[in-house]
Structure formats: structure tokens, C-alpha cells
Amino acid sequence: MAATDMPRVKLGSQGLEVSKLGYGCMGLTGMYNNPVPEEEGIAIIKEAFSKGVTFFDTSDIYGANHANEYLVGKALKHLPREKVQLATKFGICKIDLTEVVVKGTPEYVRSCCEASLKRLQVEYIDLYYIHRIDTTVPIEETMRELKKLVEEGKIKYIGLSEAHPDTIRRAHAVHPITALQQEYSLWTRDIEDDIIPLCRFILILIVFQELGIGVVPYSPVGRGLFGGKAVVESLPTNSFLEKHPRFTGDNIEKNKSIYFRLEELAKKHGCLPAQLAIAWVLNQGDEFVPIPGTTKTKNLHDNIDSVKLKLTKEEVKEICDVVPISEVAGQRIGEAFYKTTYRYAITPPLKQ
Fold first, then answer.
1. Which fold, 3-344?
2. Which end of the chain is more exposed for a tag (fewer CB within 10 A), N or C?
3. Which of the following is catalytic: 62, 157, 184, 342?
4. 205-223 average pLDDT score
């Protein structure tokens, strides 16, 4: 796909325009696999941009000693800054397989933003997310400091990640929220039931249209399952997926059947299972801008080509039917270990 072929969409109603497909940079500095050499990481970001991807996602917690932000900052030196939409995040102080420490005080907000600007070597951040919600600090206090950063020109737009509907509304009342980043894929469709309880999938758009908030699904390839991880290829050494409930024990044996069913359906569409999984997310509407990540150029090209796949309502339903949520074995990792998913992300009321 040529750069001019990549569609562009409005993310939310505040004016941010991004490529229809973004690129998640997390894997470049480890997590699913070993970190790639710096020159390879820079090369894949440059290649994504050459193919029309302009929306890049990172965080201050990705990689040892903030390595991901440093890498993205170096890659940006090779690209026209004004044509890139850069997203990063703050809020997670520590993460390992036993705990996640989250902080959202005003002082921490500002210190994190200043540090990210230096590591990324930029004057402003296009989209700045609260990575996880500090349930000990009223969301209004966190948002007031973010609002100041917008007024100072250090960030342009504010986003939330894994936030409860009540928290979204309270945050939006302080300053408009542009995007909500949420794990969403064929085998993780919690928001279809919990954000609008008992409503059908298509109605989920109403919540975000009401507030003018875009949706940025992360892990649209099912943490790699729909790309064949742990099915047609083994998990890389030191991958955090070795501890993920859906990739371990009896669960992965059960989940392999999901991959094989999607693989058969993908053949019908003349594409790869991962492409069909991404296309399914893309075809939910312009409000959805997924950010698949990869360390391989071929996979990057395949992901970008998924934008070409157009699905009818009947085909979207058919894809849902071959991946029934009731048959997905294992919890999301945030549910299993940390209790940091959006269901728990409610903050105390603001003291008057």
C-alpha cells in the first residue's frame, strides 16, 4: 500500500487526525520478545511512515530505563515532525508479574510529561494518555494538571487507557478526552458488554459519539495469537506471554482451536488470520483506530494491507461467530494479576 492510499480519520471530535492504522512501538524494546537492535527499530518506524502510518504509540514504562521513548525519539529525527501524531503515556511507576504501581498526582503528571518530552526530543506530545487510573486520586485532580499542560502547549490532546465509564465522564467534564485506549480484539470484547451493559455491539459507538471520544484498540491481533504465536510458532524466550493466562497450560490448547477456525475463514477472504482480525476491528467504524505492533517488516506490510479488507455486516457477524467469547480460555492479564482493567478504574470523589 502506497503512502497516499492509507486512509486518514478524525480521532475523537477535538481535531486530531491520524492514519486509519497506527503502530504500537512497545514490542521494539521487549515484552513479547527480546529487544530489537536500535537501528532495526528505527528502520521499522521509518518503513511504517513510508507506507502511510503516521500515528505512533509509546509509553514511559515501555522497555528498560524508558528505552522505548528514547528509541521513538531517535526515529522521529528521520521523519517530518509536523506529519507525525505521537502518543505516549504516563501513570505506571512499576510493572512486573506481581504488581503494577500506578500514580496520578498532579506533581507526578507534570514530572512525567517533562521527562517524556526530553526523551522523545520533541517540543510537544500530540496525544498524552493516562496509562492506568490511580484509584486513590480523584480523576479531576489528574485532569486539571493535564489541562494546564495543554494550555502550555506541551501536549495537544488528552487520552485515557483502561478507564471506567464513570471515570471517563468525570475526566471529560474537566477537559475533553480525545481517545480511549482499550484492549480490544476478537477474543477480548469486554467493552461490548460492560461499557453499555446488555447492549448489542454496534451500540457501543453511541457512548463515544456522545462525548466525541475515539477508540484506540491495543492488541488487536489477540496478543499475537491470531498471528500464530504459540500455535504455528513457539513463544520467544523471555516473552511475558509465557505467564499470560491465555497462553499457558490447558488454556492455550483450547485457544488454538480459535486460531484454526479463523485461519479457515481467512482463506475464504484470501488473507492471513492476523489481517482478518485487524480488519474486523477496522470495520467497526471510523472511531476505531487500532495500533498493532510488530518487529518484522513483512508483518508490518501485512498489517497495513489489512486496511484494504472491507467487510459486510454479515461477514463481521460470521467472524464473530467463529471466535465465540464463551470459548476463550483464560482471563486478560490485567484481570488475572493486577486488577488494573477498566472495570476497577474508579477514583474517589473530589473533595469540595
1. TIM Barrel (3.20.20)
2. C
3. 62
4. 79
